[in-house]
Design brief:
mainly beta; 15-stranded mixed beta sheet
Length: 259
């Protein structure tokens, strides 16, 4: 009887909604990308996940840093930093930082997320625009991709080609829905070797940069990491690529077809 009670308690704890452990990523994950235009290297990007604290509570802290290098840096210097502080239990952001430096343009914005006070909505407080009431379960631009890796991609076999996945985010101090259309499976070449990937096209807004709604593509590894491996931006002047260069601290070994 005592053993049955213990088993019941363990099952109760581990099967409660919101208490399951994240399996597709973990603190210590570090990924580095090369940004290039054809054969011309234009910058580097890093995406690191670590543990931190916000208001005395442990969080997972993700930092995305993108910056120009070489000739591109001399012509138009860019250093953009996006930070997301996420609850390990819900994977929702509790704090978000956007620190932009592009040429002479500067923008620094901190947003605090309150997902608990109201049951039907979230309360966001921006240091630039004040208080906003948004739909419950809202993400920032970084946390949404971790959530996507851990909640959407593991169920990829039930997603049909052409199907759209929408995640509501808060970006540049406004509601910004991320809509990802599933394209299918493709093999991607990287410096480490070939990686089988799931391809998605985020719906883009036609205008100054993009000709169509499908001018951005994401490739996620088809193993259990669902790691972002490659991004392509097709703009009026050509295609910019963001390619995986190195990685560390993954939950699972990255499945690679060696050269």
């Amino acid at each position: 009887m005592r053993k049955l009670f213990l088993i019941f308690v363990l099952l109760y704890l581990f099967l409660l909604p919101g208490t399951s452990q994240v399996s597709s990523y973990q603190p210590g994950e570090k990924v580095r990308y090369l940004i290039h235009y054809g054969l011309i290297s234009g910058g580097v990007a890093t995406l690191n996940l670590s543990t931190d604290t916000v208001a005395g509570k442990e969080v997972w802290h993700s930092v995305l840093l993108g910056r120009t290098t070489g000739m591109a840096d001399a012509i138009f210097k860019v250093k953009d930093i996006y930070e997301s502080f996420m609850s390990p239990e819900t994977e929702l952001p509790v704090k978000s930082i956007r620190n932009i430096s592009e040429g002479r343009y500067r923008r620094y914005n901190v947003v605090m997320f309150d997902h608990k006070t109201r049951q039907d909505s979230a309360i966001l407080t921006s240091d630039l625009t004040g208080v906003h009431i948004t739909p419950q379960g809202i993400h920032d631009i970084i946390s949404c991709f971790y959530w996507f890796r851990n909640h959407i991609l593991p169920d990829i076999d039930n997603i049909k080609k052409g199907e759209m996945i929408t995640v509501m985010t808060w970006f540049t101090d406004e509601l910004y829905p991320i809509r990802m259309r599933y394209i299918g499976i493709e093999e991607v070449k990287t410096k480490a070797g070939k990686i089988r990937c799931y391809k998605f096209n985020p719906v883009t807004e036609k205008g100054r940069l993009f000709k169509t709604e499908e001018d951005v593509s994401f490739w996620f590894s088809s193993d259990k990491n669902f790691l972002p491996v490659k991004i392509r931006f097709d703009i009026f002047v050509g295609s910019f690529m963001v390619d995986l260069v190195s990685y560390d601290g993954l939950v699972y070994p990255l499945e690679i077809k060696k050269k």
